[in-house]
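Support request, please re-run this one:
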Amino acid sequence: MASTTTPATSDGGTDRAGVAGAVRTKDLLERADGGFAELVPAAWSLATSVLEAQAPAGWTYKEIVAHIAAWERITAARLERFRESGAPQPPPGHEDDLNALVAREAGARTAAEILAELAAAHAALVSEIGTLDDAAVAAHEGWAAAVVAANTFDHYAEHLPELLAATPKTPAALSEAMREEWRPFRIGLGRIGDRHLADATPAGWTYKALVGHATYWLEALLPEIEVRLAGRRSAPEDVDAANARAAADADARTSHEVLERLDRAFGAVVERVKALPEEVPFLAVRAVAGETYAHFRAHRPEIEAGALRTVADVLARNDEIWRVLRAAIRDLGRAGLASRLRGEWRYQDEVAHIIGWMQQAVRELRARQYRTDWTREGVDAFNERSVSDRRLMGPEALLDELDTTYRLLVDELGRLTDAEVAAAGGPTTFFAWRHWEEHLADFLGAAPRPERQASG
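Re-run finished. Output below.
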């Protein structure tokens, strides 16, 4: 494909086949938007790993999408020059050269960036078409109409079959695509942390609102799947109003609550997808993709902007959360540590539990070997050892071990490189503060002077 000349991007006679006869601006817009409405769900229904894979024709699927977007941008620019000059405008270079350049540049861009560019390029082209009146569309033997057709609905029809052929068709394929994007999405939220989910995102809402927004559409997906399996679609919802409600609801809840709700919603969708028919109708695939992996992928840049990326970031966040936790433990006092927390656990048992995982993090950091094979049984056994090994320790000895372990952890974290932190996938090891956040509510709820939360 990269070396062939396609009529979809030239000004030859074949461009006029799809727009024979008089064409009005309104008709052109409807056909361009109608074709795009078929193309774009197929594009974002592709898993990220598939977008990076090679299509039968030679390009990667990501390059195909970038190619479509690029020619929409080129067409918008040509129409702008046509509007200003009144004369038909050629492409800015030879077709094969332009195609090759687009393919090379696509390799360095993420799938999310290219899919976002596809939407932006189409919006720019539609806006430019809308500036032309019927006379301009028909001028010069319908040059504008032919150029739009060649680079929108005729072009979509050329590439749509290969995109559709690569979309998930089975519950297993859909589940894999969902897992592929869920993990970085959820880990990214973990890197921001509970206490910072109230911070503003680059888009202007809070991270809590973003989580609430994602959760709302996951929950709405479950009944929609049943509608799609019946061959129908639900009536369109007021998306802006729904997003505003979801954001306001999330901002009124604690970070722990919104994350728990997100996890429950995703888990429910995972179970429903597993039970889909072995051959999933594309109407249902569109719905699942749009509210799960395509949605997570679209928000990942926003989440990654708030994630910790450097050693200095990690050390600062550890210090921030540690000071709050340590002050709350200190406020409990000797008697408070010995008091019952829940079940058989006392507060000092929870401190012992925290020490155990900090020491595990130190061991992993020193060895540069990070465990990812923990089972539920293994975690429970480790927790029990961490507590039982310290059951006979007095409060002073326990707190001394806590502080000593913290200093060791900080020292080992300081030996990391920024590249290691940026690539890290293990929040327990690299981001110990995430574990502390899980237990902060217990200690802050018991501490007699909650005003110390802010000052540490």
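The beta strands are 340-342, 345-346. Residues 328 and 445 are 9 Å apart (CA to CA).
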